[in-house]
Task: structure prediction
Amino acid sequence: MREVRIPNSQGGMDDTQTQELIVSLLNNGYVRAVMSENGLDESVIRANPWKMKTWLDHFAPCISCNGLTGCRQAIRGYFDNPVYDGVLQIEKKACRFEREKLKERSHLSCFLINDMPQDLFTVTFSRINLKGESAEYADLWQTCVSAAMEEKGLYLCGPMGTGKTYLAACAANYYAMHDRKVCFVHYPSFTRRITSMVKTGEYDREVERMGYCDLLVLDDIGAEQVSEWNRDSILLPVLSRRYDNHLTTWFTSNEDMNTLKEHFMMTRGGNMERMKAERLIERIENMSEMKTLLGEDRRKTRI
Result:
């Protein structure tokens, strides 16, 4: 008849297996490393061998891991970590790859509003490879770097995909990495969500942040639906406040100043208001220098 073994109180099958497990754990390099890092001595393993085995089984996918993309943990970037404070417990801990990612993104805490695409969270001017780029793009790159360092406004215009938002994101990250407050606002999305903000009370706070942050990026301005309210009661007061307080503002747009003026003339109600549009364009021109980006779609070439 097949022998049936009854698990002991530690979850093992018998004393022999438990002792063999203890020896195996104590001789395991990964276990020893975690013991040393967490201040655990041999007595913790001897008292909790089966719990430590369960931990090691869960930790096993991390042993051969070489990045977050291939992470096989239930929560990507976090592994079970044994700690002892009189009782052996297992807590979640960020792995080195996740810690590097969190450190690389720590500047995002300086964003008061962040509508940036996630793939732009860590872009910087220094990471843009200028090899093979045209002299015009290299000059524009230098203009953007200088404008960010000297706190000057820019209006980046050009066709879709030429890298306007990318460069503006580099500027936003530069400010944030220097502990400056940033609002990166995708303007069409902002004008759509502003109505619901009035109902929740968030409207005043959002507009206040846009008016007083160190750097405001208005991304894709000119692609929104214009109303008298968002043009005359939101955008113009925000820009006027920033202009009066000498705060830096960057714009990205598919429109140049002439076509942007035409865009602001016509409101959703069908009213043609040239003077109000000209007043807004004058404000934008006074607080930024217009630069045009041309060339192939960088979303395909991936800078």
About this structure: The chain has a mean pLDDT of 87.
